[in-house]
Design goal:
InterPro entries: GP3_package. Pfam families: GP3_package. There is one protein chain. With about 200 residues, this protein is an all-alpha fold. The chain has 2 domains: about 30 residues, no CATH class; about 120 residues, no CATH class. It has 7 helices and no strands. Helix 5 packs antiparallel against helix 6. The longest helix is centred in the middle third of the chain and has 23 residues.
Length: about 200
């Protein structure tokens, strides 16, 4: 191994996560701060320990269940805000992180949105708030464009496609021949008697 390769691996040769977590600027080649991974794992561990019996809804399909859901979501945004007071790049809100914080899956969040118009409106607003934060970071090049585009396609229903239509020029007559049946028969009969002269351009 080259000497410079050791800076990306520990003493046992295991690759360090921070080695490729760079800040997204051309002038700063230093590794970024990976404390956000620890914060995410802490939340995941806490939620796994407190998950209820499988098959039981964590947030009931009721007015109080929706209020609990919104209150937990508010704590998620507060958690990110507080974590980012010293380093704005530490945590970025996203759908997966929000679901992990609430102790649910993305599929469960989708199922909740189908409960009623109130649930659907609330979840749409939350997703828009998450998207607005990421969009602001993307505009300032704090999130790589490719990562941002994939995320809005997967989590926010945006399509990264180009649409084009092919149209024919000229007057298209479909399958209708230009000559009548009688004209074609007369031309064929004349050709049998005396073939048409082949004209070749010089």
């Amino acid at each position: 191994m080259k000497n410079e390769d050791f800076s990306k691996r520990d003493e046992r040769g295991v690759r360090k996560a921070c080695a490729y977590a760079k800040k997204y600027t051309k002038i700063n080649p230093e590794p970024g701060n990976m404390a956000d991974l620890g914060a995410l794992l802490d939340v995941s561990i806490e939620q796994i320990g407190s998950r209820q019996v499988k098959g039981k809804a964590i947030y009931d399909n009721s007015g109080s269940g929706l209020n609990d859901f919104l209150e937990a979501t508010k704590h998620y945004f507060e958690y990110i805000r507080d974590a980012n007071k010293s380093n704005e790049e530490k945590l970025i809100p996203d759908v997966e992180g929000w679901c992990i914080f609430l102790g649910i899956t993305r599929q469960t969040a989708l199922n909740y949105s189908k409960r009623s118009s109130e649930w659907e409106e609330s979840i749409s607003y939350i997703k828009d708030a998450i998207l607005a934060a990421k969009k602001q970071l993307a505009f300032r090049f704090r999130i790589p464009p490719v990562v941002y585009l994939n995320d809005v396609s997967n989590n926010h229903g945006y399509l990264n496609t180009s649409e084009f239509k092919i149209t024919a020029n000229g007057n298209v007559s479909g399958d209708k021949p230009e000559l009548t049946r009688e004209e074609i028969a007369a031309r064929y009969a004349a050709f049998e008697k005396e073939p048409e002269q082949l004209i070749i351009d010089d």
